[in-house]
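call fold(seq) -> tokens
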Amino acid sequence: MKLDSLGSGDADALAFTKLYLRVIELLAEVWEHLLPAKKLCSQRIGKMEFKLGKLDRRVKELMSRFIGLSAEEELNVLELMLLTCALKICKSEIICHNHTFKRLNTLYLRVESILKESPASPSNFVVELGKVLSTISTDGASCSPLQFDACLKFFSLKQFMFHGRIKHVNAELSIPNNDMEHPLPFVSGLPVGVPCEITLHNVSSESKLWLRMTLDDGFVQHVFLDLDCSEGSEVVRKFTFVAPFYRTAEAYCLTLKVCIGAECLFENVGPVQRFGGPKRELVLLCKEKQVYLSKVNKD
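ret:
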């Protein structure tokens, strides 16, 4: 990766560089698992799936958490996303091939659209991938892992060069006056309000943001964040918000993990969750915050 005229205060470009290098590191770890082995044990398969999942999330962050990419820069990121999908399809142990194929097809159509409007040329990997996709039905029923495995041989990592200025999409979340010694009170069976102080950086008005609240038992609740309620511009927005949490179980204390996520609008594959939740997968914009709740003593 090469940075043109990187200023000392260009934290956004540095954030992209750090994430990009993490993606390459994960890609190298995944590629290592593809090397011929005498025995493919279940432990190795599990590690492969875990690392592919991490690679998929990090590549989505490259596309969702940075704006201002040139056509060439966006093509580089999209190619990494296509590669990740191809890798997932190639592993017969990975389930949900149909969903992955739909994602791959959607991303490839976006690549084609950018190539038509820019002087950039497709890589050998993209060309070969296009040939494979042209032979497969739109529903992916005739999809064969061996076809995509052949495409992997044409992939070559290219130098990533910034020509402009990118902006980092991120959020800051704080829960005031809350820690283990000062939990929020709740009554079992009734909603509890979780006060949130939120600052958004470089979030456009078209973005769909959600507050994700997760209990220790895995239960997840999403609350939509209305950007019309925020103050400021698309550069910096600030607002306070009291999020209702409904699952107050019969317990003396609860711990929530709360974070802010943005829907992946570039992946119009299908709904992820129904009943008022996000329609697409979320990319997290901040680290999870611990929220402590304590049951009110009726005595």
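The chain has a mean pLDDT of 84.
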